[in-house]
Specification:
The protein is built from nine helices and no strands. The chain is mainly α.
């Protein structure tokens, strides 16, 4: 792979690999493709449950490729989605796992939230958590 000399660009694939490795470790999964799907679907659900400004604030703290994943397919005019319940959030994530359903969607989503907690500033994490409905905030602990 050619190096650009721009550290944020050159380091981006490694950052994605680190995030996926952490998710696999936390969930005791062997499949990085499954971890990638979980990360993608959870980030998209978070993005769509936030206001446009809150989503942009969070995205600004994400590493380059993760930020690209976050924004992929986004229609800001359709956010925030309704309903924004915990059940709707979990259903949205789990519906992408039709072939091999998630055993515990809450645990899987909570693992992504925990990964975000470790990767973004505490202030941003708290801001995003508080922007969610109360029942969904429980998963952000």
């Amino acid at each position: 792979m050619a190096h650009t000399g721009i550290s944020s660009v050159d380091h981006s694939p490694q950052v994605v690999a680190e995030w996926l490795n952490r998710l696999c470790e936390d969930l005791e999964w062997d499949e990085k493709g499954r971890a990638y799907l979980l990360l993608t679907e959870t980030l998209h659900a978070i993005r769509d449950f936030l206001s446009v400004d809150e989503a942009a604030d969070l995205a600004a703290q994400l590493p380059l490729i993760i930020r690209g994943i976050f924004y992929t397919g986004w229609d800001p005019s359709a956010t925030p989605v309704k309903p924004r319940s915990k059940a709707a959030f979990l259903a949205r994530v789990s519906e992408r796992f039709q072939k091999v359903p998630l055993e515990d969607t809450e645990r899987a989503v909570a693992a992504v939230f925990d990964l975000l907690r470790r990767q973004v500033s505490e202030g941003e994490f708290d801001q995003v958590r508080h922007a969610m409905r109360k029942p969904l905030q429980e998963l952000w602990s």
